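Supplementary Text 2. Reproducibility record for the structural model of the 181-residue chain.

All settings were left at their defaults, and a single model was retained for analysis rather than an ensemble. We include the record here because the model underlies the residue-level annotations in Supplementary Table 4.
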Amino acid sequence: MDFAQEAALVEAVLLLEVEPVEEALLARITGLGLTAVRQALDVLKERCEAPNSGLEPVRIAGGWTLSPKERYWNVLKDRYGKQREEKLSRAALETLSIIAYSQPLTRSEVENIRGVGAEGMVRLLKDKGLIREVGRKDSPGRPVLYGTTKEFLKIFRLESIADLPKLDELEEKRFALDEPR
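Retained model, structure tokens:
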């Protein structure tokens, strides 16, 4: 099999898989070596850069998936985005942002930063699979610590939390806790 055929095989797998696929799993599914999978992904990325391609391979949550190019997604998301994500209220987005930038943290720490109760927002975000319990704080009562999920990374098209946009100095102060964690 040549590089173009290997790229086509990897493309077919990415099209059929619902979740992002790690390179090692791509190698097992296709029967290609890890190096061949990486080369196939490079060929696929190059091929998808053409103006007549509406898709692109993107690395999300530690794996690869085929996704509409950003410029096309902006046109299509009103119809197709509703299947994957519902609109979040301003309060839910604020709570999610606090958790994403300050994780891991407890509900009371979220409330400290927001200045209002967050129990309902934390429950909503947890029910939507955007945050999860990641442990317990070593303090009296051992409160639950929250962090973001792979679903969060997928929805926001991030490979990892490190890919979040950087905060400016004022925003960093807003997301900081007065007390050490």
